[in-house]
Amino acid sequence: MADLQIVPAGKTVEAQYVEMKVPLYSYGCEKKVKKALAHLKGIYSVHVDYELQKVTVWGICDRYDVLATIKKKRREARFWDCEESSSEKTPSPSPPLMERAPPLFKGEKN
């Protein structure tokens, strides 16, 4: 019962693609990811691209359930589109440097 997904009756249900960036260190990792996703209901296919470190899932599923399942095997997994939006952000300005450091000891003279 734990791997069942509940879909509200009022919504139209369509198959969707879920793309994730998943760190894969070997071809054994690829097998682990495929096996973990095989237990989810409604998944039609799983494609793992080892060179791009990308996993594409197609099926009737909730994308957050798919990500949670992947994170059980690879904690650093995230959605593919989140990577693009984070690279567009501008870096925050660095805090101003102190002109002179305060003395370390109470009796120290500068």
Automatic annotation (TrEMBL):
Annotated SUPFAM superfamilies: HMA, heavy metal-associated domain (SSF55008)
Keyword RNA-binding carried by entry: no
InterPro entries per the UniProt record, alphabetical: HMA_dom, HMA_dom_sf
Signal peptide positions on this chain: none
Gene3D superfamilies found in the cross-reference section: 3.30.70.100
Keywords associated with the record: Metal-binding
Tagged with keyword Magnesium: no
Domain of life (superkingdom): Eukaryota
Pfam assignment, any one: HMA
GO molecular-function term, one example from the UniProt record: metal ion binding
CDD domains membership: HMA (cd00371)
Region spans: Disordered: 80-110
PANTHER family linked to this entry: COPPER TRANSPORT PROTEIN ATOX1-RELATED (PTHR22814), HEAVY METAL TRANSPORT_DETOXIFICATION SUPERFAMILY PROTEIN (PTHR22814:SF305)
Name of the protein: HMA domain-containing protein
Organism: Acorus calamus
